[in-house]
Amino acid sequence: MTVIIKKRESLELLQGNEAIARGALEGGVRFCSGYPGNPSSEIIDTLARAAHSLSIYVEWSVNEKVALEAATAASFAGLRSIICMKQNGVNVASDFLTNLTLSGTKGGIVLVSCDDPNGISSTNEEDARPFATLTDIPLLEPASPQEALEMTRWAFELSEEIQNVVMLRSVSRLSHTRSNVQMKDLPDFNTKACFDISTSFHTFPVVEKHKARDAKLLKASQIFEESPFNRYEGPSRPELLVITSGCASNYVVDAVGILGLKDRVGILKLGTTSPLPVKLLTGYLSTCDRILFAEEIDPFLEKEIKALAGDLAKEIGSKEFMGKASGHIPSCGELSPGHLMEVLGNLFNVSWKKDEYREKISGLIKDAIPPREFGFCPGCPHRGSYYAIKLALTWDNRQGFVSGDIGCYTLGIWPTGFNQVKSVHAMGSGLGLACGYGKLDQFGFDQPVVTVCGDSTFYHSGLPALVNATFNQADVLLLILDNSATAMTGFQPHPGCGKTAMGDVTDVVDMEKLCRSMGAEVMVADPYEMEKTAQIIYGLLQKRGQRVLILRRKCALVQGREGGFPYKIEIDQDLCLGEECGCNRYCTRIFRCSGLVWDNQLGKACIDNIICVGCGICADICPQGAINKIIK
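Now predict its structure.
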């Protein structure tokens, strides 16, 4: 952390997200907000820690729309601000964003979207770049942590020059990679906030404001023509021109170098990807008739530059375009040097052995990586929650199911959650869907539906759906899986935790009182008490109306940090019948906590004492009573 708040110029090893945070500090940011979501979370986490030493304000907002609105207030008062989120969060913020870009801004304001190609930690691999063209704001795409720092720092200047939001787009590999980064001096953080009451920020008259926004975008395009973030390397008249951006540009450079094509292939790396630098592109498009696009995730540049080439047809002539539309580049997922080597090898008839290359890369990994399935952590309360849900729905025997949501508990779609979750979409959508199911009785629908959401998700977007259920008298059973943290993204605080992003003590927003105030029947249970919880769920399934069960137990990792669990778990090998037990290895085959393992030599279940945290809930599932909880 001392690296991020160093006042003077130095060369440091930084993660991509740390570089964005440092760039914001070097740019004189004063107000920082966001909502946690991988791969973006470390930016606000880093800035929150810096707030203890620097005169900046940092918050985890209740959702992305509110984060953008709060940061905009700082901009209107003349301060520089940054808002950070993952690609899904831009959807949430977009309602306000489409209006804000019409009204314009004052202090520099940078919107960071960290996209997630391949859906590494997301329910989709949405490309957030189209929001830049939708709202007519400049878009920057760094390719390295160094560029991430420099672009973020410069984005504040650009924002103030055009008096509008600037969007910076990272991706998972950039956000979470590390490299040496040259840092510059930090400024003095002494800007005073003041709203000039002689000015106003609104969208009226709409058409005039729209024209003004277009003029701002034109100004940005003129600035982009001379941007050092757009770079070309290769021959003056290449046989193939590759136009690329972001992390994909690194893969192109690697592939061209490995295949020995540096004298035949030109690489145009764009860092300012919207609006397009037309003059720059016109020059390079004129040098070559074959163009290959390499980008993640959507064919964003490909479509825009093809359209531009149509306008420039008389000047640059006919071109052969290759990319996602032609099938040369995969239409989805992450790119890699291997992808580009295969494409370039075929285009230039260069022989290379894919298997040998992969073996070389694999050989760099000294030890084999053991297979690992998606699963809850040892001691995770969600395992107990889903076990209780499974029991209750089995007892009920009416083909009930779970409408799921986004968080650690999304793993309920797999065996670790006993395959109970049947749908997962956007945050809060589990309860929104349940509102629909809860009004289908007139159409003959008689299956019970349990909907789950986490505590952070409840505050983020569960509340409107619960209001909707009350307003429309929908029959819903909501289980709030309250593990006292935004656990999936790094244990960031939320309104139910009693602490802010900067560690300040604050009032807890009581979810029980909130739910009761809406007229819902509210109960609280401990998911570690699986049988008792299952009985409560079963009882609630027999009722109608708006019912809320809060399953409260701290995340196992949080509890581990706060002193751990009280038990040591042992298996009585005399009581464990192994394969002879009628349970058919229920503990390791069905319950499948990673702390429970099957010993092939003994033919019995055992405890992995390295992994087991000592929560003790597995003691309740052995029919022979062979699993024992021993107080430490």
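The longest helix spans residues 206-224.
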